[in-house]
Specification:
two-stranded antiparallel sheet; single chain; 1 helix; 169 residues; 8-stranded antiparallel β-sheet; mainly beta
Amino acid sequence: MDMLMGSGTMTPIPRVWGSVPPLYQTPLHMASRVLPGEVVVERSEDDMQLMAKVEYHGDMMLVLKTELQLNYPASQFVSLPVTLHITNIQFSAVAVVAYLKDRINFCFMEPDLPRTSLLDSFAIRTEIGDAGHHVLKNVEKLESFITEQLRKAIDDEFVFPSYHSFELD
């Protein structure tokens, strides 16, 4: 028996199933002990695993708009619109999709050295304030903070041993 978890972290074991090299311990290769909150799934002949290299080097632009509200000294005392323009996105990774009975598990493998993140590069341009009034553009500290947090979130949530599991009905 192999164990699966909903969305979380797994502990790999040294055995390999199928043609996956030992370095790639994936959702099909999990510890055989069962911990509280885990779902146990028996292997079937229909189980399969797909590994694919995924790359994106395009001209997609993502624009996020939000509001920064300051609640001191009163509720909604100041409200500043914030616009983020994310461009020049370059992404490269090995994706692993495993079909196990009634579940699909998905994750990315760690990038090969010297790379440290799945996101090779991207650019963020910021605008704080209302376009009709004063606007702060390209706030460097905010841009570097968002860049760091975005890389960390993607790597923490999608790189093995973290994975996402989807139940099929």
